[in-house]
Amino acid sequence: MNPTIELLMSHRSIRKFSEQKIPRELLLELIRAGQAAATSSHVQAYSVIHVTDPGKREMIAELAGGQGYIASCSDFLVLCADMKRPTDAAERTGAKVVRGMTEQLLVASVDTALMAQNVVVAAESEGLGICYIGGIRNNPQQISDLLSLPDHVFPVFGLCLGYPAQEPDVKPRLPVEAVLMENTYREDSAPVATFDATMHTYYSERSGGNKNTDWSHNLTPLFETKLRPHMRDFLVKRGFEMK
């Protein structure tokens, strides 16, 4: 493996950060690296809110489900899908723009994720740790109000950045044969069963034998409790009508 692949394969989520601050110029370089990511039709349908107000960070930590590392990391970003800037720009040229299309929601969401992942890789190459915060979608309207987000802009996730104060193990991933298929989709539960055994061992060792679970059982909240049924109405109200 070359150094870039080794870096990608060493990713971990960091939830404990030292008090060392990220230099401003480095933070700007990370954002520039993010902007270099692929973007659909050069739309660049994202905006980044750098939350520096301690009070706002405490509020976001609470709204995101009590995730204290939002307040304790060096820098906290909210990555937003932004269709306001490109549609406004097109409209100023005289274009008869159509807002609220499902494709616009997808483009902005994908653009935001690609941009953020570039930021993450750049940050980790500098020895920083990161943690994505999907919990801001627990209360997206309150987050939007707190950050004064206009219509056609919505918070996709947050991102903690800082110097790590912990060294967690790299969490295993599904075997490549579970996700790489040739020509047609293949249904095969065998790789999942193998992966469940791997994850059972991982959780047991990490918890000193106190966590008896695996990958399949850990998916339960996604389909039973972490449904966030409010998201559709929220997106429609923000102008993403999914027409």
TrEMBL record:
Question: Which keywords does this Swiss-Prot/TrEMBL entry list?
Answer: Flavoprotein, FMN, NADP, Oxidoreductase
A Pfam family assignment: Nitroreductase
Presence of keyword Oxidoreductase: yes
Q: InterPro entries given for it?
A: Flavin_OxRdtase_Frp (IPR016446), Nitroreductase (IPR029479), Nitroreductase-like (IPR000415)
Q: Does the keyword rRNA-binding apply?
A: no
> What is a GO molecular function of this protein?
oxidoreductase activity
Which top-rank group of organisms is this from?
Bacteria
Q: Where is the Nitroreductase domain?
A: 9-163
Q: Which SUPFAM superfamilies match?
A: FMN-dependent nitroreductase-like
User: Belongs to which family?
Assistant: Belongs to the flavin oxidoreductase frp family.
Please report the name of this protein according to its UniProt entry.
Nitroreductase
Its source organism is Franzmannia pantelleriensis
